[in-house]
Write a structure and sequence with these properties.
389 residues; 6% helix
């Protein structure tokens, strides 16, 4: 064998030896997880591709798990669309005049609030039906006058004891649009409003469509009143609010609504400026029953009529107030038209469960405003228990 052949054979042997040595120096094959590469001194270890650190790599002050989020309960107020079809109502809803409104309120002992005139009609279009776990309200052949806030509240009952809470309250403002009635109809051509010194005043130019463009005007001299959102602001559900009454706002004002080429004028409001404080509130109180059987539940309601923006605080005094079980109290307020004026009707209702001898006595309600306080009382009797009971 010549020298050239020996040289080729030697090179092949060297290649085989090098390959064998390289094979022996390889790390063991992966078992499904890649071995973590140790970082060199001063070298930062990059985050994993998923964008999340493993639990053991988290700083000690950072929790590895977030606290569970409390699930929201089912909605209280629903709109009935048809048999077995429901819709969660939003803060406001627009329907057409002539439609039928049907709402369902979840809970027991449900109570409804709606525009007051629906209860005073000779041919009622309002119907409320109560079931064990919900109540249903229906308004047929709705009109523009039915525009307003609809709300319900219910009780959470355990056996015979009930309590109410804000999580059991549902409300929505419903517009019943009518191209011929851009404002909620009223029989009053003029309404007199008092501008009390440094007090807010509401001009209830309430429209039947949330899309209507509404402006405020003065009759004499004829001009548009600027609405800057500071001195005067506009709310599509309530109307114009004069936040701080001044003598310059006195006079005859009205609103103009425009929609799809139709323009209409609202009731005219005669604003009279009065620079003296109003009198303290004069509450009235009534009990659901003046005489109850032992174990029977009853309630006492305190009502105050006042200015639309008046802040009213109710306080109750009742038998064994310091020793007995605290009764549940619910408060509400709504705007009412009375004698050509818009008034706020505020109510506080005190609920007493399972009457007993200690619940008999005088129930006193005090109403407090910035002008002062007024109080009134009523007495509730608990009848003797039947013999042998």
């Amino acid at each position: 064998m010549n020298a050239k052949a020996w040289a080729v054979l030697g090179c092949c042997l060297l290649l085989l030896i090098a390959a064998e040595c390289h094979k022996k120096g390889k790390p063991p094959k992966s078992t499904g997880k890649k071995a973590a590469k140790e970082p060199r001194g001063g070298e930062l270890k990059p985050l994993q591709a998923a964008g999340r650190l493993p639990a053991q790599a988290l700083p000690r002050h950072q929790p590895t798990a977030q606290p569970p989020v409390k699930a929201a309960g089912p909605p209280v107020l629903l709109r009935v669309l048809g048999p077995g079809r429901f819709q969660v109502v939003a803060e406001a809803l627009a329907l057409r005049a002539g439609d039928t409104l049907e709402l369902r309120c979840r809970g027991r002992a449900v109570r409804w609030s709606h525009p007051a005139h629906l209860e005073d009609e000779e041919r009622p279009r309002l119907r409320c039906v109560h079931f064990e776990k919900y109540s249903q309200m229906q308004v047929v052949n709705a009109t523009a006058a039915d525009t307003g806030q609809y709300s319900c509240w219910s009780f959470r009952c355990l056996d015979t004891r009930c309590q109410d809470g804000e999580d059991r309250t549902g409300k929505t403002f419903i517009f019943f649009t009518d191209p011929q009635e851009l404002f909620i109809p009223t029989e009053n051509y003029y309404e007199v409003l008092q501008l009390r010194a440094n007090r807010p005043t509401l001009l209830p130019c309430q429209v039947t469509s949330p899309l209507a463009q509404v402006t405020l005007h003065r009759e004499f001299p004829p001009e548009e009143v600027p609405v800057d959102g500071v001195n005067i602001s506009y709310d599509v559900q309530r109307g114009f609010m004069i936040h701080r009454s001044q003598p310059s706002y006195a006079g005859s004002l009205f609103c103009i609504a425009s929609l799809d080429g139709v323009r209409q004028i609202s009731t005219k409001y005669m604003l009279i400026y009065i620079n003296y404080p109003s009198s303290p509130p004069k509450p009235t109180v009534r009990a659901s029953a003046t005489a109850v059987q032992p174990g029977e539940s009853f309630n006492v309601t305190c009502t105050v009529l006042g200015e639309p923006e008046a802040s009213i605080t109710f306080t109750w005094a009742y038998p064994r107030q310091q020793l007995g079980r605290p009764p549940y109290v619910r408060e509400r307020a709504a705007l009412r038209r009375q004698g050509g004026q818009v008034r706020q009707e505020a109510e506080s209702t005190l609920y007493v469960d399972e009457a007993r001898a200690g619940t008999q006595g005088l129930y006193t309600c005090q109403a407090q405003t910035l002008e002062g306080a007024g109080s009134t009382s009523t007495r509730v009797h608990v009848l003797p228990a039947p013999a042998g009971a």
